């Protein structure tokens, strides 16, 4: 009798122990970390800031002179401007590959713009972040027309059904709030970096980990060598995107926005709020969300700038300083493809 009772008590004890273990494994970050061997958020943060390179990697000694004397490779706030020959890809890959990062990549293909997806994704598979985990998020009103492109290892594609609009301006500027929602609801624990890309584009050459940074902007090909008063910033003080005529560093293209998730979240949230204010005041900035992006970057400087190699235009002739075109806007018939003029 007594031994039966003891046995029952023992079983109860074991059950409690098991349930307790289950509870802690679900709720305690320490437990889940130990069990799944996953880095905690804090450890991931350190992982980002530290540029650790394994011992035994040999590469050429860095030069003491500027490898690109023909063009500026840093900003006045000492952020790098990425040009061909301004980086050693072997060094960069040896630092970033062991971090095992995932790059979320958002692309909007609404209405007739779905036709650009095939070439964009096929060329991305050849050139974009090859050797890294990439997850494409395709926002479209026509999910059935998203082409079936064979993706490499570690690369995924998710379609997200999106509403269309009768105005192309609306489709373009709504990207800010959609990316905001995606990061908040989906990506914070799934990806490390994000790039938002225009769909009417194609990769022509390598685009890799040299492009990664906390907050990344791209220099617009057409406005690259102009003076600031010629930049097509929003000039009406009534708009939240207003930039005075004597201010501005560069003109950034809206077709490429990138960086760490938390930094890009702050950017898209701020721009979305400024777009909402403009809407309430019945004003639309001259270049929609691109104008708000330029305002944001004026006061929140990007930590890395991509040269126009990373956002060229197929219609544009290449000057001498352009040693390579990596990503470029394809030629399109605006009148035929957009829902409105
Ligand atoms: C090279 C560059 O920096 N381009 C920017 C520029 O003109 P773009 O002429 O490049 O604008 P665009 O017509 O390519 O529209 C921007 C993007 O919105 C999406 N879209 C647009 C219309 C449509 O019917 N369906 C659709 O899916 C698509 O992803 C497209 O790539 O200014 C726009 C805002 O005015 C955006 O900031 C673009 O990024
Ligand atoms: Mn475009």
UniProtKB/TrEMBL annotation:
Its cofactor is Mn(2+). Keywords: Glycosyltransferase, Manganese, Membrane, Metal-binding, Signal-anchor, Transferase, Transmembrane, Transmembrane helix. GO terms for molecular function: hexosyltransferase activity; metal ion binding. An alpha-L-fucosyl-(1->2)-beta-D-galactosyl derivative binds at residues 220, 232, 290, 313. Belongs to the glycosyltransferase 6 family. This is Globoside alpha-1,3-N-acetylgalactosaminyltransferase 1-like. The keyword Glycosyltransferase applies. GO terms for cellular component: Golgi apparatus; membrane; vesicle. It comes from Silurus meridionalis. It comes from the Eukaryota. PANTHER family: GLOBOSIDE ALPHA-1,3-N-ACETYLGALACTOSAMINYLTRANSFERASE 1, GLYCOSYLTRANSFERASE-RELATED. Binds 1 Mn(2+) ion per subunit. It is found in: Membrane. GO terms for biological process: carbohydrate metabolic process. It is a single-pass type II membrane protein. The keyword Membrane applies. Mn(2+) binds at residues 198, 200. UDP-N-acetyl-alpha-D-galactosamine binds at residues 108-110, 113, 198-200. Gene3D superfamilies: Spore Coat Polysaccharide Biosynthesis Protein SpsA, Chain A. The active site is at residue 290. Its main location: membrane.
């Amino acid at each position: 009798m007594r031994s039966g009772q003891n046995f029952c008590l023992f079983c109860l004890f074991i059950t409690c122990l098991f349930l307790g273990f289950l509870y802690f494994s679900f709720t305690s970050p320490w437990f889940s970390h130990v069990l799944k061997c996953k880095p905690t958020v804090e450890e991931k943060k350190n992982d980002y800031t530290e540029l650790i390179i394994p011992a035994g990697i040999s590469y050429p000694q860095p030069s003491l002179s500027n490898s690109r004397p023909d063009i500026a490779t840093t900003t006045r706030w000492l952020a790098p401007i990425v040009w061909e020959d301004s980086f050693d890809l072997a060094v960069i890959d040896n630092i970033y590959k062991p971090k095992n990062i995932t790059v979320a990549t958002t692309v909007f293909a609404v209405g007739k713009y779905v036709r650009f997806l095939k070439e964009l994704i096929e060329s991305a598979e050849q050139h974009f972040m090859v050797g890294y985990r990439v997850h494409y998020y395709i926002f479209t009103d026509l999910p059935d027309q998203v082409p079936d492109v064979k993706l490499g290892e570690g690369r995924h594609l998710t379609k997200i059904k999106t509403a269309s609009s009768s105005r192309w301006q609306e489709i373009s500027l709504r990207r800010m709030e959609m990316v905001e929602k995606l990061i908040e609801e989906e990506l914070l624990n799934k990806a490390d970096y994000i790039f938002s890309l225009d769909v009417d584009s194609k990769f022509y050459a390598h685009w890799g980990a040299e492009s990664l940074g906390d907050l990344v902007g791209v220099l617009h090909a057409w406005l690259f060598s102009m003076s600031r008063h010629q930049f097509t910033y929003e000039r009406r003080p009534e708009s939240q995107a207003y930039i005075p005529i004597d201010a501005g560093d560069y003109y950034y293209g809206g077709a490429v926005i990138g960086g760490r998730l938390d930094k890009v979240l702050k950017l898209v949230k701020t721009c979305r709020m400024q777009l909402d204010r403009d809407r309430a005041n019945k004003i639309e900035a001259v270049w929609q969300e691109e104008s708000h992006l330029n305002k944001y970057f004026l006061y929140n400087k990007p930590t890395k700038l991509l040269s126009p190699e990373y956002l060229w235009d197929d219609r544009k002739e290449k000057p001498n300083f352009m040693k390579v075109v990596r990503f470029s806007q394809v030629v399109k018939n605006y009148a035929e493809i957009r829902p409105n003029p």
